[in-house]
Design brief:
Among the domains are: about 230 residues, Alpha-Beta Barrel (7-stranded beta/alpha barrel); about 120 residues, Families 57/38 glycoside transferase, middle domain (immunoglobulin/albumin-binding domain-like), CATH 1.20.1430.10. Helix content is about 50%, strand content about 10%. It contains 19 helices and nine strands. Strands 1, 2, 3, 4, 5, 6, 7, 8 and 9 form a nine-stranded mixed beta sheet that branches. Strand 1, helix 1 and strand 2 form a beta-alpha-beta unit. The protein is globular.
């Protein structure tokens, strides 16, 4: 007997930083997240499994992140960076010791804390995981402890992609990359930025391209599901989570009596809505758990070693007045916060069961990097929540696919234009500061479509030309990344994002001119391949709209 189900989804994504700078933006961002998030979460999943507890987390790993985590250049860079962190910790041990320049027992203790912490992490990377983080995640998916989902190849903002061939290629490349890394077809998908566009202006909706890639479900915000009902589609939603199906047509095609009969057979793509209260309790800047004053301060680092010695202290404390961090006090607060969160989930599902007589669902989704990287104690929080849900409650923890298999959706829905942005709109990615990017992207899409179509229709077997076309497609994917307009809008790394965008634009244009002229400079092509080497399995056929897709698109416009 259970009061309901709980799906804990973590979305892991970073921009393509390989060979694109080190600090403050570049490869070091990946190294920090490997050390503070990805290895600790793998350690946590493995430790729980060794104790007989399957974490049952649903973990999204975007294809462009999977490529970086499995890249030898990045692995070597991570080891070198970690060795540097260990050396800085040793220097702090000397600096703050009795014979050091500035003896300080509290900072000495923290220096030793980090020396132990970094040393164990590097050992885990090399010994426990064999320098293969992706292989570690695969191991526990194969053991049934977690489920891994995919995404569009480079986390593109799908609604603003101009060509259907590019949309299809992004999601099919994501599915292909997943199968390469994890040895099985992907079922779930993180929709980049939760950005959705329904069928419009003769184009099928985003759900259609997920279906074409063989994907079965994705996630969105709950307000997207609960609002905007149309006369043609029934919309059913409960306060504790919802799963609905994304339709393509506006009326049942010939041979089907109802929308549901057609959608369940032809368009089995489900959407799961994020529970607002349970999500807000964690990520809220003002009231969420990570804002507790006992937790480690992310933004202040020692000016010599770069290590974090301070705690948040309070929401109003200036950086210069932060107090020293105490790991033991932080652990006490984690115990209290995890108790509170488990109680919140149990109470919400119990109330849902009482009011409907049916077990409900709470699904929460967060950026994986929130835990460990931004909120240093966050991985311990997840571990304690999993333990306490399993030991003390009647809540069933399960992966998204497990819930879908046990509780198949029965209602149909068409989602409106939406994203996680303010008001569900697209302004974060399309505004006065970023509008110049989209004509560049869309022109590159048309060029890619035309050059690939020409090559495929000619049946050319020219290996050098095929190499150039594949690199052209990689540069298009990287140009389409939603990270560049996001970083421009938020001003987190505006100049860096513009430079990265322009860099991929220049490489794209150079390769396109080679292809158009028929004069391909192999040495220049090899140089570009050495920089942007993601997706070696990329398929030009993924850019070709198949007859079945054309038929489905025609149906969706009926």
């Amino acid at each position: 007997m259970t009061v309901g189900s709980f799906v804990f989804m973590l979305h892991s994504h970073l921009p393509y930083y390989r060979k694109a700078g080190m600090w403050p933006f570049g490869e070091e961002n990946v190294f920090e997240c490997i050390a503070e998030t990805y290895i600790p979460i793998l350690n946590m999943i493995g430790n729980l499994y060794d104790e007989g507890i399957k974490a049952k987390l649903t973990i999204g790993i975007t294809p462009i992140l999977a490529e970086q985590l499995s890249d030898e250049h990045m692995k070597q860079g991570f080891e070198k960076w970690m060795e540097g962190r260990i050396e800085k910790s040793r220097e702090d041990e000397v600096r703050f010791g009795q014979r050091g320049e500035t003896p300080d027992p509290e900072r000495l203790r923290l220096g030793r804390f980090y020396l132990d912490w970094y040393s164990k992490l590097l050992d885990a990377f090399r010994t426990r995981w064999g320098r293969d983080i992706i292989g570690g995640f695969k191991k526990y998916q194969d053991l049934g402890a977690i489920e891994i989902t995919t995404s569009a190849a480079t986390h593109c903002f799908s609604p603003l992609i101009g060509e259907d061939s590019s949309l299809q290629a992004q999601y099919k490349a994501g599915a292909d990359n997943y199968k390469k890394h994890f040895g099985r077809p992907a079922r779930g998908c993180w929709l980049p930025e939760c950005a959705y566009r329904p069928a419009e202006d003769g184009r099928p909706g985003i759900g259609h391209w997920l279906h074409e890639a063989g994907l079965k479900y994705f996630f969105t915000e709950s307000f997207v599901i609960s609002g905007g009902q149309t006369a043609d589609v029934r919309r059913v939603f409960g306060p504790y989570g919802s799963i609905e199906y994304i339709p393509a047509p506006t009326r049942p095609p010939t041979g089907y009596d109802t929308f549901e009969a057609f959608w369940l057979k032809e368009y089995p793509v489900a959407v799961m809505g994020r529970h607002e209260q349970a999500s807000y309790q964690v990520w809220s800047a003002g009231n969420g758990y990570p804002g507790d004053g006992n937790y480690r301060e992310f933004h202040k680092k020692d000016d010599v070693s770069g290590l974090h010695f301070w705690k948040l202290t309070s929401k109003t404390t200036d950086l210069g007045d932060k107090e020293l961090y105490n790991p033991e006090a932080a652990l006490t607060r984690i115990n209290e916060n995890s108790d509170h969160y488990v109680g919140l989930i149990q109470n919400a599902l119990t109330n849902q069961l009482k009011s409907t007589s049916k077990p409900g669902l709470i699904m929460v989704s967060f950026d994986t990097e929130l835990f460990g990287h931004w909120w240093f104690e966050g991985i311990t929080f997840i571990e304690q929540v999993i333990r306490k849900l399993n030991e003390y409650t009647a809540v069933k923890t399960c992966t998204a696919s497990e819930y879908l298999e046990e509780t198949p959706p029965v209602h149909a829905i068409e989602l409106p234009q939406s994203s996680w942005g303010s008001g569900g709109h697209w302004q974060v990615w399309l505004n006065n500061d970023t509008e110049w990017m989209w004509p560049v992207i869309q022109a590159a899409e048309r060029t890619t479509r035309d050059l690939i179509e020409k090559n495929l229709s000619s049946g050319s077997q020219d290996q050098l030309r095929t190499r150039a076309l594949k690199q052209l497609a990689r540069e298009l994917f990287l140009l389409e990344s939603s990270d560049w307009p996001f970083l421009v809008t938020t001003a987190q790394a505006k100049q860096y994002a513009v430079e990265r965008f322009r860099g991929h634009q220049e490489r794209f244009n150079l390769i396109a001119e080679m292809l158009k002229s028929g004069n391909i400079d192999e040495s220049k092509l090899s140089e570009i391949e050495g920089i942007d080497n993601c997706f070696p399995e990329i398929s030009l056929q993924n850019f070709q709209i198949t007859p079945s897709s054309i038929a489905a698109s025609s149906t969706s416009r009926s």
